[in-house]
Amino acid sequence: LSPSEHEVAVLLIKGMSMKEISDVRHVKEKTVRQQATQVYAKSGYTGRHELAAHFIEDLMLEKSVFGVSE
Predict the structure, then answer these.
(1) Quick one: pLDDT at residue 51?
(2) How far apart are alpha carbons 16 and 51 in whole angstroms?
(3) Neighbour tally for 8: CB within 10 Å
(4) Cα separation of 16 and 38, whole Å?
(5) 70: number of CA atoms within 13 Å, CB side?
(6) Residues of 28-42 as b/e, b for ≥16 C-beta within 10 angstroms?
(7) DSSP string for residues in 21-69
(8) How would residue 66 be classed by pLDDT, with cut points 50, 70 and 90?
(9) Within 13 Å of residue 40, how many CA atoms lie on the same side as its CB?
(10) Under a CB-based contact definition with an 8 Å cutoff, are residues 1 and 41 in contact?
């Protein structure tokens, strides 16, 4: 993902709306929608739930690799 797409992906996972993301990033909502479309196309996921699940899996893997315990 490009840096912009990565930022949009993180904000989508946080549950922000397209409008909220566009306001935070100071871009048009259409730009955010296009970037979100690219995030889903490149990742192969169809929505926020799958994207969030992947993020959580990666986070859990990262913790186990680095021996982080709670």
Answers:
(1) 87
(2) 14
(3) 27
(4) 17
(5) 1
(6) eeeebeebbebbbee
(7) HHHHHTS-HHHHHHHHHHHHHHHT--SHHHHHHHHHHHHHHHHHHTT--
(8) low
(9) 13
(10) no
